[in-house]
Amino acid sequence: MQTDLNKLIEQYRSELYDNVLPFWLENSIDNEFGGYFTCLDREGKVFDTDKFIWLQGREVWLLSMLYNNVEKRQEWLDAAVKGGEFLKKYGHDGDFNWYFSTTREGKPLVEPYNIFSYTFATMAFGQLAKATGNKEYEEIARKTWDRILSKTDNPKGKWNKLHPGTRPLKNFALPMILCNLVLEIQHLLDDSMLKTTTDAFLKEVMGDFMRPELGGLVVENVMQDGTLCDCFEGRHMNPGHAIEAMWFIMDLGKKLGRPELIEKAKDTALLMAEYGWDKEFGGIFYFMDLKGCPPQELEWDQKLWWVHIETLISMIKGYALTGDERCLRWFERIHDYTWEHFKDHEYREWFGYLNRRGEVLMPLKGGKWKGCFHVPRGLYQVWQTLEYIRSERPDLAAKMPEILKTV
Q: How far is CA 217 from CA 232, 274, 306, in A?
């Protein structure tokens, strides 16, 4: 890894500006029907035209966020509005229940069972409203937020295929993403709503799912009463999810002025990275079983792009906010693995799926699950955090070359 801070900052900034963003802006925009293509092969050619609502929302959010926070580029705003208008017209059932997918033209394909279509629509319209001043976009974000809050006890609603009452589990993913969502739309929430929801989500993430009896490990599923369950779902571990959640918690801790929360999140990210690291081949496992039993997911040992990018964010934030040198050492380890294995040195954007040995499994750059989100968001977050270290924490900046020499 480059130990010169200025060069490291430029590495992340230029990768975002010169490689990743141009890939999506040139290849994903559907100029005929609106919205975005996300199923793109290695070179950026479209191989399927179905539109997945959560990925549409993610791209609207990403472009709007960059417009709001980095640079007022009209190209970014125009592309964001194109996606927002498609979502407004075709992404929901008229009552802000957001479909999982549509055809290219916008005809519904999969019913609105997936709560993450709702969360990313809220993020998208929250940022798009800020970028445009459009009150209609703001109202869509508010109404969808209300929909989410009404569904927290049963996110899938009538599309839940589980038999009620036998094994009432709750999942980590929703309270985790809501810890980030409240910060994304804080400009739309009054202080009372912000405090009430933040307290509730933090209690779940740092209470129900973080388990002291497991040394602080974060589990993916617990019973509704907060107890552990010895079943496939109850033993299911997703290290990347937990690590990603911890930078959300660090951001909340900074916003709320709670350094103890930042410290706890940083320690948990370190714990989960150590737990999930593949000591034979390197990289972080996708899924694990709490008791070391055979995981039910056949893809359990794959190495995924988002897991490693989110770990980069958590580790550099951990260093920036606490000065813990262990975070910087982990940042170095993950940086080297990520840039060596996920970056495509021949074509733009990054690979998403590797086998356990770190070899590319699928050369696609986007699909049903990978879109214009984790890579550009990660590059932005790391770039901005490194800028923060350079400008606000010169003491930490000065230590970086010496610490990284010892890795």
A: 17, 11, 20
With residue 361 as reference, give the H or E element that holds it: strand 360-362
- List Cα–Cα distances, 8 to 14, 107, 386, 393, in angstroms: 10, 45, 8, 16
Q: Is the pTM of this model over 0.85?
A: yes
Residue 219 CA to residue 113 CA, distance in Å, equals: 23
Structure tokens at 289: 């079983």
Core vs surface per residue 230-257: b (16+ CB within 10 A) or e: eeeebbbbbbbbbbbbbbbbbbbbbeee
Query: Sorting pLDDT into bands at 50, 70 and 90, what band is 1?
Result: confident
Q: SS in 3 state form for 36-60?
A: ECCEECCCCCEEECCEEHHHHHHHH
- Tokens linked to 340: 């060596």
Among the listed residues 55, 54, 37, the one whose alpha carbon sits nearest the alpha carbon of residue 46 = 37
Give the distance from CA 311 to its chain's centroid. Answer: 10
* Res. 228 pLDDT band, cuts 50 70 90: very high
HSE value, Cβ hemisphere, 13 Å, CA-based, for 288: 23
Q: Whats the size of the chain, residue-wise?
A: 407
In the chain, what percentage of residues exceed pLDDT 70?
99
3-state SS class at 288: strand
E strands, 147-252, where?
Answer: 169-171, 210-211, 217-218, 221-223, 236-237
Residue 264 contacts by C-beta under 8 Å, 6 or more apart in sequence? 206, 249
Q: Are 361 and 302 in contact, with CB atoms under 8 Å apart?
A: yes
Can you tell me the distance from the alpha carbon of 181 to that of 287, in angstroms, rounded to the nearest whole number?
A: 24
The predicted pLDDT at position 406 comes to 58
